[in-house]
Amino acid sequence: MAFGQPSGLQRQVISTLDGNGRDYMGLDTLAWKYPDNSIVSGSLLTVESNHFCVLKSRGAVLEVYETGQHQLTTPDKPILGSIVQGFFGGNSPWQYEAIYIQRSKLLAQNKGIATSKEMAVMEYTVDYYVHVDSKDDAVQLITHMPFAGDRIPTAELTAYAGPVIEQAINQIVQVTPMEQVNERIGDIIELAKGHLSDFLKIYGVHLNDVKVLIMPQDARMRELISLRAFGMSELEAARMYLALKMAEKGLVSAPNAAAGAPFQIGGGTLGTFDAGALAGVKG
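Structure (tokenized):
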């Protein structure tokens, strides 16, 4: 039966696929409620290979189904017919929910800021994969993660996980000098993975690979640190940064700025470029 048609007490084909064979779950949904809750005995429940389906009634879990087609038997069967039609106006007094759970790996992402030992603002991006592994996990998910509408998107999961990730990253970044943060990226990943894994278990969600990227929020700082990575001193990096900005503006004195040498016109010296000149360059 297509979504939106009156069901009454008709037997249905319950599935996550629309009339064109497209999956309503998509690539960003952990759980999705079938939109018609007037499900009766004899209805055919279809569960795809990458899903679980939880059948609930009045808040209680009746069954968790795995891949395949299942004919449902519900307590309304003994009173089908004229009694239901007359007494309940054609509607079953029992209401059921078919909730599909995604068991494929889904990509989640959290972004935020941390502060280094010098209180420099750092941006971080954490990418990770999650999946629901078993029937028990599926029940855990719908028990502890509330529905905001007809689905639980990965965005809701990342909203819950955000504070856990932020705490784990700041635990190391806040005691590490800015230039040394990426030297400790392995420690940061392991700490974030441990904290996040323990947190997600509450919701029946398993954590897979984790990737963490951290960089200064200020673009100028990112460029200066990149120059330092070439083995330059702080002063040399500042001069080179100044020279690059001057070159972008077409100034012929850019090489002199890079070398920290004075620029001469007709035998006159205009001055020596040093790190202090950075204040005069608008980039």
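Residues 154-173 form the longest helix (20 residues). The chain has three domains: 13-102, 106-217, 227-280.
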